[in-house]
Amino acid sequence: MSRFLNILTTPEVVRTIDPKRLLDLLAPYQQYLAGRGLNLPASTKAGTIDHEKLIHILDTPSMETPQEMLNALALINDMATEQGMDALLVAARDRGVRIQLDDETSPGDVAVQVWLADSDLLEAQHAWHTFKMPRRMECFAPAKDEDPPFLKLIGKRIDRCRSDISAWMSDHNRSDKVQLLFKELPDQIVATIRRGDPVRRIETIDRRGVRSVHLRPAAKDTVILCRSENVMLINSQLVKAREVYRRCIGELMFGNPDHFSAFNRFTFKPLIEDRQAVIVADPANGIESVRLTEIRSHPDGSQAAYVQLGADNLFTDATERGYDLTLDSTLASIKLNFGFRNDRRTRAIKLYAGNAACYTRDHLSELIEGWLENRGFLIKRTPRPKKVRGQKKPPATDTSTNRTHTTGRDDQALASA
After folding, report:
1. What is the distance between the alpha carbons of residues 179 and 412, in angstroms, rounded to a whole number?
2. Does the pLDDT at position 386 exceed 90?
């Protein structure tokens, strides 16, 4: 548990929180803290709080330590940065939460005030503050050629989507507690889903000996709608959940649970036909080197056979050792390694036959995707808006700002259990 609070092992971090606000935060746990030797002072003497003793308690939690306190302090710690503070101030303003600011207000003070006023709001902002784009994504595209209009994300419909996901999770022993958050960006809409995994039993040891603790781990899934192509990307370790998200979020966004279907995003045809000739650098677009480093094939047969080869450069290895590199329709996946101009790092990506790929998605991935598209490995889709008879051309809209949806209003879109 203490790994979530490693920042608090520095007393100066706790001291950045106004003592009176810190007392308000700790008040529900004063009985536990007293049992650990820390008696909270009266609010009139808040400045006398023993920060050193508090740090020791937080850094040495036991099975009796209130999880609610640890959770609150962990979230506040993560948001007690300039970037976290800026996000909280914007979110609080949008939600109508008043934050007291003066010349001595620290990022930690802002985080504590938001937590005390609206803990759900801080949890939602924490989810985005700590969000990392997953590497592996599976691609889905509209089943029909023409794309219906995107439906506005409003609270009631998001609640219904969350409820449908929650019902499926509950039926499959993953708890009915689901958190669903959306963020609208100019080029995409990102959904992050927090859900449960099956309950686990782990053994713990403390001063009373060895005991078993039952807990339900939390998992995080991601769904992205790419506006430019109108394709959906899904990441989830729970395979069956991908189908649930495809249907539920497809219905939320386009009014049809079958709007999206699996899309053959990647093809190995260029590699099969042109072999080494297609694995070439593109210096004009910032890519200095490209190497084929792994292939995996699934030959026909009843024994689920597979053949996997790997090397720093498979074409060079095949030439040096005198073997034929088999590249045909049985290819199931390949790995490529890219080198970039003015960047010492290399980047490995893995493509799967069909609709999945695994790679870090950042500014370098844009170069990689351009290379894949130019050489025919990546299949792009051009949206075709559905024509409605008599429909007038809609007015231009401003997409220059990012919108994060939160719960509590019809025009907001955080839905959490």
Report:
1. 14
2. no
